[in-house]
Design goal:
alpha+beta; Beta-lactamase; 3-stranded antiparallel beta sheet; 13 helices; globular; disordered N terminus; Class A beta-lactamase-related serine hydrolase; Beta-lactam-related; Beta-lactam/transpept-like
């Protein structure tokens, strides 16, 4: 689900010269071994600042083509036991999982297993889906770029009530999505853009229909291919395993006191596939996006299709096929963000700066709280420390 870490527009007022400054910085430091020490210290200072403001933990990894990889973690993975957060800890990827799901679908497209213009009812025959008027007009591509018009399942009051009353039960994808039953489309398929988690949950079911098990497919064709040894798909089968995953926190009473909600967070994420469900280390997240943009997962032609941006009503580029477009003033980025009740992150590639950045926290990024309010400029301050 999207959280405040997706609001890159807040940086526009301070990044107008970022691209030019980074070019100068790289020209001066390209011959040095490792990421520039002054940049490391600047980033550490920013992370420590926000941990001191109440965020339990923050992790960052950055890769630059000329300088290489650097990662750092600040704060705690668990407050109760005062467990330090390290770069080896795994983070909830939340909606960044959508990019992984999109790659699976596009690989099946490349293999001739599906067409992007195929109607989704060709693959999906669920009693809660077919009665929706107009669903037969929805194509796979409309799911990928959020133009389907399908309603949001994750905010349905009945589903939210069920989760609150039985927070530790892991549901399956069909159970979760069935809460759109009886609802109408929000708009005519293909007529406009509206971000909906429903779209990518359905994509996981389509991938299951074609592959027999999209989780096993993803593990083989993405994780193994890119050597992502610290990336996992949560499920009821591994919910109790020790995956070196961060604990999750939420300022439940809005008093500026983080409360551990790890069991709720893990069960909720384990219930979702396609739109969520993945956990990974910071460096694994970087490896995934690097692998994608370098052509290790998709052909150049398919990568171009993936970046066919849907425009907003104002004519701004919004979303491709599992990718978000970020206008950063004098430069741009592509990637995805994710938010949850106990976590948040962003993974972004800056093509003009030849850099990939991943930022993650183990604190709520979806709902208002005093701590979240203090962290509104977090991502901006980190990127400014990296590239100014």
């Amino acid at each position: 689900m999207p959280g405040y870490l997706s609001k890159f527009q807040v940086m526009n007022r301070r990044v107008k010269i970022m691209g030019l400054l980074l070019v100068v910085t790289l020209s001066l430091t390209a011959q040095e071994s490792g990421f520039p020490r002054e940049k490391q210290e600047a980033v550490k200072s920013v992370l420590k600042k926000y941990v001191d403001l109440g965020i339990p933990g923050l992790s960052l990894a950055v890769y630059n083509e000329q300088i290489g990889l650097w990662s750092h973690a600040e704060g705690l993975a668990n407050l109760e036991n005062q467990t330090p957060l390290t770069t080896e800890h795994l983070h909830y990827l939340q909606s960044i999982s959508k990019t992984y799901m999109a790659v699976v679908i596009l690989q099946l497209y490349e293999k001739g297993k599906l067409k992007l213009q195929d109607p989704i009812v060709q693959y999906l025959d669920y009693p809660w889906l077919k009665p929706i008027k107009g669903v037969d007009k929805i194509t796979i591509k409309m799911l990928l770029n959020h133009t389907s018009g399908l309603p949001e399942y994750s905010t349905d009051p009945l589903l939210v009530s069920r989760i609150i009353q039985d927070p530790l039960t892991v549901l399956n994808v069909s159970e979760m999505l069935s809460y759109i039953s009886g609802k109408s489309l929000d708009f005519e398929p293909g007529s406009k853009y509206a971000y909906r988690n429903t779209n990518f949950g359905l994509l996981s079911l389509i991938a299951d229909k074609i592959t027999g098990d999209h989780v096993a497919y993803m593990e083989k064709e993405l994780f193994e291919k890119l050597n992502l040894k610290s990336t996992h798909i949560l499920s009821k089968d591994n919910i109790d395993l020790n995956l070196h995953l961060v604990d999750a926190y939420w300022d439940v009473l809005l008093e500026g006191i983080p409360t551990n909600i790890s069991k709720l967070q893990r069960a909720n994420v384990s219930s979702m596939k396609g739109d969520d469900g993945l956990v990974a280390s910071s460096e694994d997240a970087i490896l995934f996006l690097r692998g994608l943009i370098s052509g290790k997962l998709l052909t150049p032609k398919t990568l171009e299709i993936m970046q066919e941006w849907v425009l907003s009503e104002e004519g701004e580029r919004k979303y491709g096929l599992g990718l978000t477009y970020y206008d950063l003033g004098t430069t741009c980025g592509i990637g995805h963000s994710g938010g949850g009740v106990g976590a948040g992150c962003v993974l972004i590639y800056l093509p003009e700066l030849e850099s990939v950045v991943f930022i993650a926290t183990n604190f709520n990024t979806m709902m208002e709280s005093p701590i979240r309010k203090k962290a509104e400029n977090l991502q901006m301050d980190i990127l400014m420390a990296l590239f100014m």
